[in-house]
Amino acid sequence: MVIKIFKNFFGRVLSGIFKNKRDVKLGFYGPPNAGKTSLANRICKDFTGEEMGSVSKVPHETRHVQFKEKVEIKHKGKTMVFKMIDTPGISTKIDYEDFLKFKVKKKDAKNRAKEATQGVIESIKWLDDMDIVVVVLDATENPYNQVNITIIGNLVARKIPVLIVANKIDLGKADIKKIESAFPEYEVVGISAKYGKNLEEFYESIFELSKKI
Amino acid sequence: MVKKRGKNIGKIKGFAIQFIPYSEIKNLNSDERIRKILEIVLGNNILMLQGKLLPEEETRLIGDTMAMIGHIKNFRGIELAVISGNGDEGFFDRMKKGIINTLSKGDLGAITIIGPATIVKEIKRNPRKIELLLNR
Questions:
Q1: Average pLDDT estimate for B24-42
Q2: With contact defined as beta carbons under 8 Å apart, do B132 and B95 qualify?
Q3: In this predicted complex, what is the ipTM?
Q4: Domains in chain A, CATH or no CATH each
Q5: Where are the beta strands (DSSP E) in A169-213?
Q6: What is the CATH T-level fold of the domain B16-134, as seen in this structure?
Q7: Which of B55, B65, B69 sits opposite A150 (nearest CB)?
Q8: For residue A206, with 0-12 CB atoms within 10 Å meaning exposed, 13-18 middle and 19 or more buried, which class applies?
Q9: What is the pLDDT of residue B2?
C-alpha cells in the first residue's frame, strides 16, 4: 500500500517535470485567408530564419497541415520551445468556381478545391492534439461568422487555451473593436503579420497563454 | 443581382424550409443527429433546428459535408449559422436560461440554420440583424 502511494507520487512528479520540458504544441486556426501562414512564417523567420509555407491571395493556399519543430521563441529574457502547427483554413463550403475569379485554370481550380476539402478535414482532426491555439481572424472581415464560433467552441470544449489574433491591422478597414465585441470573453491582440506590427504584445500573450496548459 | 453560375445549379427548381423542434433530436446520438440533418440538407432543403448542436457535432457536420464535395453531384458544402441570445441578459435571466437549458439538455433559445451552399449563398450576421442570402 505504502509502496503504491510512493510510486504514484513519484510518477506524478516525474511526469510533471517532463510535461513542462516538452515542446508546446502551438496551433494556428481560422478561416481561409486570415493570415495563419503569414503569422507562422513571421514567427519562424524571426526565430529560425526559415519560413513555414507559401502564402497567396487565392484562398486555401495551405491545404495540408504544416509543422515546424523546435521553434525557440525568446521574449523579455524568457525562452520557450514550440512545435508550430499551421492548419488549412476551415470553411463550410468550397466551390472551385470561386478560384476561377483569381485566374486559376479550371483543372487547377478543381484540384485545389479537392485538396482544400481534405485540408479542412485534416484541420478538424488535429484539434485534439493542440496545447494552445491562436485563432487568426482577418480584422477587415465580419467576425460574426459561424466557422469562427465553431472553432472557438470546439477549443473551449476541449479545454485548450485560446488567443484571438486580429490580423491585417495595417489595412484601413480593420476593426479590432468589432472582434473584441464578438468575442468578449477572450483576449484579442491586433497585429499585422505582413509588416510584423505589434508582435511583442503577441509574444507576451503567447507566453501567458502557455501558463494555462 | 447574383451572377448566374453553372448550368447544373440552374436545375434547382425550388427548396423548402423545414423546421425541427429540439424534441425530435433530443434523444438521438451524434451519428443519428448528423444523419438526420444531412438527409434534409442533401434534399435541397433549408433546415431550421430549434436549439444547437454540440461544438463537436458542428465540426463533425463540417467534416462529413467536406468529404461529400466532389462525390455528390452539385454539392458544394453547407452554410451554417447558430442564432442565440446576444449575451446582454441580466444575471437572473442568465441563471433562468441556464436552469431551463440544463433541464432540457439543450439551448432551446437558440436556432440553428443549415442549408446547402448551392441554395444559401451566405448567412450574414451582426449583433443587430441576420440576413439569409440565397443564390437564386
A1: 96
A2: no
A3: 0.87
A4: 23-210 (3.40.50.300)
A5: 188-190
A6: 3.30.950
A7: B55
A8: buried
A9: 42
